[in-house]
Amino acid sequence: MTSEQFLSKASKWIFYSFFFAVILLQGCSSTDDPLPDGPLLAMELTNEAYGTDTRQVMDVFLPARRTLEDTPILIYIHGGAWIDGSKEEFLEFRTAFEQALPDFAFVAINYRLYNFISNTNGFPTQENDVIAAVEHVLENQLEWNISDEIYLAGASAGGHLALLHTYKHQEIGNIQAVMALFPPTELESLHSFNFVTQSGLTALLGGTPESNPDAYFQSSPVNFVSSSSVPSIFFHGTEDTVVPISQSDLLAAELTGAGVNFQYEIIEGQGHGFTPATYATVISDIANFIEALR
User: Fold this and answer.
1) Most buried of 82, 143, 191, 215, CB within 10 angstroms?
2) How far apart, in whole angstroms, are the C-alpha atoms of residue 241 and residue 86?
3) pLDDT grade, residue 240 (50/70/90)?
4) 8 Å CB contact between 254 and 225
5) What is the pLDDT of residue 1?
6) In which order are the strands placed within the sheet that holds 73-77?
């Protein structure tokens, strides 16, 4: 073979190699990309684990067209006196929340419950589970395509946990604001409210305010309010016989003294749980409060 023939064959080989490489690259269309070019579809993740215990799970509701820049998260924490309840509580309010805050992702969490029989999962187990849940959401921010802006909300014991995390662990998660319905806020005074609160809190916190004062201090949201606390909105009925409205009065006083932006709505004539019409108003007020901050 002459040198000219060799160069000719080499040139053809290079040309064909380049030609087929171009064809292969063109054949890899955008549909092969793991992230679609168009808007993302809505997605639900049920019983997403954030820990090893069977109670350490969450439901995640991701909206369509979500983005890393424009999709904040509202984490809802259920009530039940720290001994009962489940994340399914959020389903009662899901439609109203999604209509009021259409660009939000929502997360409803379970947490480990105190067991009177085995005397397990006393405080701060629930506090630590909220921390783990918030961290899990942040770890999945990119995969879920959501913002790092977090809003915490809860009712009764869930409201207490939402407030406690927000004021005590504000550095864990980019917490923007907190919402609470009829929440316990100062457990030492709640202990003496009636026999039920005495028995429950003594077991949950491993003693009385006299025998274990630090547990009551560390578990009371009002003790961690400061001038840097985030905006807060909370609601309480005047006829609440489970968590007295004085608990929210105490919180309002602390927030006022610290100069924190807050909104406190007293619901006349209602108790520990509101009517459907009142819940609709409450969620609308929460949405308005949030939108005024953004």
Assistant:
1) 82
2) 22
3) very high
4) yes
5) 52
6) 43-49, 57-62, 105-109, 73-77, 149-155, 174-181, 232-237, 262-267
